């Protein structure tokens, strides 16, 4: 599925680095969440800090200190 920015340029989520937070998220390999995850990463691709309100830790409360 193609994604486009506000100027109509196509964006390829495969070219983005996957943030560390995503690698420990329960939704990382969930096909039902793929579109939302791609949109969140594409939207924040130029941001210094990555934040995701949809994040669900694979490790529950063991890693609260890195979520902030």
Short description:
The protein is mainly α.
Q: What proportion of the residues form beta strands (DSSP E)?
A: 5-15%
Shape: globular
H/I helix tally: 3
Number of strands: 2
**What is the alpha-carbon Rg in Å?**
13 Å
From N to C, what is the helix and strand string?
Answer: EEHHH
Which parts are unreliable, with pLDDT below 50 for 5 consecutive residues or more?
A: none
Largest sheet: 2 strands, antiparallel
Count of domains: 1
Oligomeric state of the chains in view? single chain
Q: Can you characterise this structure?
A:
There is one protein chain. The chain has 68 residues and is mainly α. The chain has one domain (3-67). Helix content is 26%, strand content 6%. The protein contains three helices and two strands. A two-stranded antiparallel ribbon has the order 1-2. It is globular. The termini are far apart.
Notable features of this structure?
68 residues, mainly alpha, 26% helix
What topology emerges from the helices and strands here?
Elements: E1 3-4, E2 10-11, H1 20-23, H2 34-43, H3 64-67
Antiparallel strand pairs: 1-2
């Amino acid at each position: 599925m193609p994604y486009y920015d506000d100027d109509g340029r196509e964006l390829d989520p495969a070219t983005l680095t996957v943030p560390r937070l995503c690698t420990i998220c329960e939704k990382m390999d969930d096909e039902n969440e793929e579109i939302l995850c791609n949109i969140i990463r594409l939207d924040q691709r130029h941001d210094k800090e990555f934040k995701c309100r949809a994040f669900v830790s694979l490790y529950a409360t063991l890693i609260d200190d890195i979520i902030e």
